[in-house]
Amino acid sequence: MAYQLYYWTGIQGRGEFVRLALEDAGADYVDVARVDGDDAMQPFLDGARGGARPFAPPFLVSGALVIAQVAAILHVLGPKLDLVPEGEAARLQALQLQLTIADLVTEIHDSHHPIASAEYYADQKDAAKRRAADLRTHRLPKFLGYFEQVVAQGDGRALGAHSYVDLSLFQIVRGLDYAYPEAMAALSPKLPQLRELEARVAERPNIAAYLASERRLAFNTNGIFRHYPELDGGIAAYD
Amino acid sequence: MAYQLYYWTGIQGRGEFVRLALEDAGADYVDVARVDGDDAMQPFLDGARGGARPFAPPFLVSGALVIAQVAAILHVLGPKLDLVPEGEAARLQALQLQLTIADLVTEIHDSHHPIASAEYYADQKDAAKRRAADLRTHRLPKFLGYFEQVVAQGDGRALGAHSYVDLSLFQIVRGLDYAYPEAMAALSPKLPQLRELEARVAERPNIAAYLASERRLAFNTNGIFRHYPELDGGIAAYD
Predict the structure, then answer these.
(1) What one-character DSSP code corresponds to residue A213?
(2) CB distance A69–B96 less than 8 Å?
(3) Tens of pLDDT, residues B92-145
(4) Residues of B in contact with A100 (CB under 8 A)
(5) Which of A61, A91, A167, B151 has the least CB density, counted as fewest CB within 10 Å?
């Protein structure tokens, strides 16, 4: 039976981390809201359906299972899609890394919405400029430097073998290239492992086909990764 | 062999969610930094020790296992400490709920540090006032309303039986009572299930003993939950 992925239409968003895993594995799945509209998610969010009630999209339905939170979804999908090395230790390490990716995703989102998700960017632009400067100067070097070392330890792969974590790191790098091109140009010389990982993932046949398809939406300024030139810039304090 | 918990001294912080699980289960553990100082964490953070390198504390060491990220630590400890109902479905639901708790914890932290974790509160006070107002008015009602319904569905327990998720929800409620007393006074009439859960957890013998011990640090304005009167207030827009 096909997996059913539920996520907002119109953006890649957090759903994309799940989508990349399903696409890479060639899994049979339906992107439900893109077929039936965003309203299709409401009964689940209202708790009117069985399973664990999601707080927010994305969530995945597979038979009787309803599971929300990207890291939990990938924790379930990993062994099923052969996207995590065998054994509990590797599966746990993947979970840990994915949770740190989730923290980074939140910080990237909040760099353009530091005050309130529900308010317009224009109404929090001054705060966003300060937060984005901190992201570029301190947080990105710290997070990306950490992942660079993790990938170096794994001989080019976060877990020493292909996994959903590599797919998510690919998405982080591509998203940051879109949102913060100037900062990423400055950081990239120190991130050879992540750049190599990005190139290798992009060449995987199923990923290459996906990226060339209409299913891969373009990055845009409604998503998590947003390109606002006034937020981008150098990383002066980064040594 | 005793579990070794590594977390910053001087605050409850994210380490407290792990501590509550270890204390409730009467597990044998050492709070390493409180014995040897914060420097004891550095070799792990530098990647100089085996296992999955932590991005940040807390992390737990158990034999050869080094595991970071609160939700991943509790995912490991749950079955070992009998703090999650049996079966993969329940374990997964616990993970999902704990990840939503983690999201809430980040939002609570960012309500006093919306611009940069590394900068002083005084230097981001104006932005904090706006973010805290959004937290009180929109985010807390949404998150706590969600958990209220989850607990109601489980007959007073997030998973229908005692689990580490209940211990974490207890910590959320206590932390918010300290940080945002006025907002919580306004919200509480709509949160009878969470209030009952909080009281029940506090009366568990091991938790009661822990809360009365010197191991339980007081909430303070260095932690995640901070009481700054200027950030607290009503929840006008909440119906």
Answers:
(1) S
(2) yes
(3) 999 999 999 999 999 999 999 999 999 999 999 999 999 999 999 999 999 999
(4) 55, 68-69
(5) A91
